[in-house]
Every structure is written in C-alpha cells, then in structure tokens.
Amino acid sequence: MCGSRVAIVDCLARGSRLKRFATQDVIGVGPRLVSGILHDLGHEAKVIQCEEAYKVSNALSGFEALFVSGMSTDIPSMLKLVSRWSGGPAIAGGPSFVDYLRLIYSGYNFVVWGEGELTIPSLIDYLNGKKELDEVPNLIYKVGNHVIRNPGPRWANKPVLWGFTPSVKDITSYPGWWGARVYVEVVRGCSNFFRPTLPLRNGRTCIFCDLCRKGSLIQRLKCPIDIPPGCGYCSVPSLFGPARSRPMEQIVDEVKSLIKLGVKRIVLSAPDFLDYGRDWLVSPDPLTNPREPPPNIDAIDNLLYRLTSISEVSTEETYIMVENLKPNLVTEESAKVLGRYLRGTPVNLGLESGDPQHHIALGRPSRVDEVFRAVKLLKKYGLRPYVYVIHGLPGENERVIESTLKAVKKVWDLGSEKITLYRFTPLKGTAFEGFPKPPPAVKSKAKSLYELVRKLNKEGKLRLKGRKLKAIPVNRGKDGLIAYALPHGPVIIIESNNTSLIGRVVEVKVDKVLSDRLVKGFLIT
Ligand code: SF4
Fold first, then answer.
1. Cα(205) to centroid of ligand 1, in Å?
2. What is the mean pLDDT of residues 245-252?
3. Number of CB atoms found within 10 A of residue 238's CB
4. Which of 22, 268, 372, 496 has the most other CB atoms within 10 Å of its CB?
5. Whose CA is nearest to atom 4 of ligand 1?
6. 304: helix, coil or strand?
7. Under CATH, what is the fold of the domain 176-461?
8. Does residue 225 line the site of ligand 1, with CB under 6 A?
9. Topology of domain 5-149, CATH
10. How buried is 232 (Cβ within 10 angstroms: 0-12 exposed, 13-18 middle, 19+ buried)?
11. Can you tell me the distance from the alpha carbon of 424 to that of 418, in angstroms, rounded to the nearest whole number?
C-alpha cells in the first residue's frame, strides 16, 4: 500500500442512476480533501467521476485501493460501482456513512464514519501493517458476521482538522470545471445545537429542559433524552459537530491556486458563512449557540478583503460567492460587509417553513420574521437572496402550507430572486429519522406551494429577457452551446456552434425563457 495508486470516485449527487441530474456545475469539497490527505501521506491519488469509473472499462485499472464518496441517496450508485471493483480495499465515505450496514454488506471493506482526517491516516497505517485494525478511529468493518464500529472522537479539532491541503489539480477531472462552482471549505460543522420540539418517531418528545437553548455552550452538546442537535431534518451538527473555522491563510492560498488553474467561480462553503470566526470568539468552548455571539465582523471583513483583493477577483475575471447564511445572523452590519465585497452575487437563506410556530418547532435557529428581515437587508446591500423551502416535513398541515405560501410571496416581494422547494428526506442520524418520505409536491397537499414556486421562478427568469449576461460555455448541446451565467444564474443555451468559445467568457443577450431553469440567448461578444 505504501506509495500506492488510489482512486477516489466522486458519486455525490448521482442518486441511483450514476449520473448527475441536478447541480451539475458544482465541484464539492469532500473528494478533493480525501485526495489531498492521501497525497500528503505519500500516495498517488486521483479523483475520478462516478460515470467514468462505472462505464469506462479500464478507468479503475492500475489502482490498488478505492475510496468512494457519496450521500445516503447515492448509495445505489455506490453499490453498482463497488460491484465493478476487483482490486484492493474498497472504502466508502462522505455522508453515506450513516448507512454503513448497507455499504458493508454490499461489498465495501471499510466505511469511514465522519471526518476523513481522523480515520484515513490510521487506516493507511493499518494497510501498511503499522497499526492494528482496532486502533483505527471511527472505522467500520466486518469481522465474520459482526459489524464493528471502532470508537473515536465525535469531531476533529486542530491540529488534525485543517492539517491537510485539499487537492487543487483534481478539479480538472470534472467536466466543464473551468465554468463550475468550485467549493472551498471555510467552516466545518454548524453552530445550531437547538433541537426540534415536535414529537419524534422514536417516541421521544422534548421535555423543555431548555438546556439546548439556554444552557452553557458545553451543556448544549448533550440533550438529556438524546435528541440529535440541529434542525430536525439536517445531519450536519450531529455528524460533523459544532462550527469550526478554517485558518484564513489556508483559504486564501487555496483560492489563489484555483484561480491560477483557471477557475472562474468559487463558493466559500459553510453550513453558515456568518459562523466564520464566531467560534474564535468563544474558544476554547464549542460554538453551539446559533444566535450569540453576533457575527465576527472583523474576521469576515478580513477574509473577504483578502480574497477580493486578488487581482483576478478585483477585475471580475473570477467571482467569489458565499453559500448559506442563517437568517438570524444577517444584521445591518453583517449584510453591509457582505455587500461591500460580494455585491451582485447570490446567497442562500433557509425559510423551510413559513409558519412561525412550525419554523421554531423544527429546531430552526431563526424566526420567520428574521428571514424577512434578512432578505430585505441583503437586497439593500446589493446581494441576490435565494430562499429554500421544504415540503412534507413532520408537523406540516394545512395551516403550515397556508402560512408558507404567504411567506414565500412575501420574501419574493422583498426581493428574493429564486425559491427552491425541496422534498423532505428523513436522514439517518437526524431527529426526523424514521418519518416517512412524503410524495412529490405535485402529488401532495403542497401542490399549491409547488405551483407558486414554479410561477415565481419563471417570472424571475422572464425579468432576464433582454438582459445582457456574462457567461462561460462549458459544452455543446443539440441546440447550441451550453453555458453557465456569471457569477451565477440559469443555464443558458447560446445559439452558436462555435466550440472554440468553450471555456472562454462571453457576453450574451437573453431572448427566450425556456423553463424556470433554462434560458436561451445569442452572443454579443
Ligand atoms: S431538545 Fe433536549 S436539550 Fe433541548 S430543550 Fe428539549 S429536552 Fe432539553
């Protein structure tokens, strides 16, 4: 195993069909980080796309170990892939680790529970004969008919955390990488250790001890009746721990390397970007309060100043964006600092449920009125707020749908540019584990919500008609070039067959709205 060739297959968002149908322009952090860890440990690691690894006959030949990254919903693709593997150890990781039994009983030798930094170095030592199997923290494997899960830390801390450098060169294995949104990790974990108060499937219901809302930062880690932390539908705090910020120097170095390679769109990835540097204000305690202290404006200002001072960013050859914000942390001050550096870029806010009581009962860190305030402030300072909603959640009823319809109309009127309606998925390791998955919105009582969201998003796209946009063609489709809008927007079909434009920034005038996700345009330059 020493110095060996390792394949890292990215199955993220492939579902059961070994193909990405949504978020095709996203390059996530996980596989690049695993590649970086293996590289730092002296191995030759290569990221390969799931489609290629499965369909191209010799794509995995010559590799001595296989790492596969995916979410729970990607397990069918991960299983198909491992059935093709005949080399050395097959190791599964990424958020799919919560379904480790399925992975272990279907061909994977090992599953890495949680953060790779904690397990991969010891696993490599074991494979090199330098450690015993039971010494590898957080590793899951089978001995005879028994599945063993080794104990280990619940989450990584420094120096292990941020001790490895995510691979930059591996992004070139992604089709259209030059136009993709490349995610750069800035915060690991989430500060929301509130918990839902709705009755749960395992028979537990909050006893209102208030520890997770009013206790000390340490006390909030543990609920006396073991309700997992965070919003009931989200697994981030229970599986990846409280928010921990990455050192600024590392972020700046990684962004510079990506820009040097030719990346045009970079997303600062964090369950909440406004958690950046907030943990430093309460250290050594864990940041388990999603509301206090307020955002660390100096840290955010410093980071964004340094990133937007990179010449390619200041001249708008490359764009920097942030991912998600907690609505309650969007204050006049934090919105102002975001607007100073990120004007014209989109940001995501979770509304999820527009019913004030239901919103809080889900374990949300915010209130509904704070979502409205956040949209207003972000708009005021020149950002483009996108809002998430979830249908089919536990506790959803006619009143909740009615209130959510009103709240969606309100955020739209306040300036939200896009609404994304998700279907609730009961994830393992979350408080809402075990609830049934609801039918698709069109076939459920949330149909009116689906229709409203569709109508508003289409209206939003219609506003683009006649507008000039910068875009980057990434491929040739049957009706022309397929391009991504800069810094972010709908997919654009450009009426041109000039494939030499692929990878170059062009200006396009939008002349037709094809759907709520797709527009058509023609080249100006
Ligand atoms: S979720 Fe748990 S910790 Fe929070 S108030 Fe309820 S019982 Fe207490």
1. 9
2. 98
3. 22
4. 268
5. 212
6. helix
7. pyruvate-formate lyase- activating enzyme (3.80.30)
8. yes
9. Rossmann fold (3.40.50)
10. buried
11. 19
Residue with CA nearest ligand 1 atom 2: 223
- For residue 83, give both structure tokens: 């059935």
Cβ of residue 211 lying under 6 Å from some atom of ligand 1:
yes
For residue 212, how far is its CA from the centre of ligand 1 (angstroms)?
A: 6
93 has pLDDT over 80: yes
CB of 227 sitting under 6 A from ligand 1: yes
183, exposed or middle or buried, with CB in 10 Å at 0-12, 13-18, 19+?
A: buried
The closest residue, in CA terms, to atom 3 on ligand 1 is 223
Structure-token pair, residue 168: 């930059």
Could you tell which of 194, 200, 212 is best to mutate to test the pocket of ligand 1, judged by most ligand atoms within 8 Å of the CB? 212
Q: Helix 398-414 crosses helix 447-462 at what angle (to 10 degrees)?
A: 10
Residue showing tokens 């480790």: 100
Which pair of structure tokens corresponds to residue 214?
Answer: 């009013």
Cβ atoms of 371 and 351 within 8 Å: the answer is yes
Spell out the CATH class of 464-523: mainly beta
pTM for the whole structure: 0.93
In this chain, the answer to whether the domains covering 176-461 and 464-523 adopt an identical fold is: no
Residue 210 Cβ < 6 Å to ligand 1: yes
Q: Is ligand 1 within 6 A of the CB of residue 195?
A: yes
**Of 506, 417, 411, nearest to 457 (Cα)?**
417
Determine the atom of ligand 1 nearest the C-alpha atom of 222: 3
For residue 375, pLDDT beyond 60: yes
Provide, rounded to the nearest whole percent, the portion of the chain with pLDDT above 90: 86
Read off the pLDDT of residues 329-358 as tens digits, 9 standing for 90 and up: 999 999 999 999 999 999 999 999 999 999
Whether 360 lines ligand 1, by a CB cut-off of 6 Å, is no
- Using the Cα atoms of residue 270, residue 273, residue 277 and residue 282 in order, give the sign of their dihedral: negative
Query: Residue 416's closest CA among 516, 504, 346, 336?
Result: 346
Q: Domain-by-domain residue ranges, the chain?
A: 5-149, 176-461, 464-523
- Other Cβ atoms less than 10 A from the Cβ of 461: the count is 22
Question: Do 124 and 1 touch, CB atoms closer than 8 A?
Answer: yes
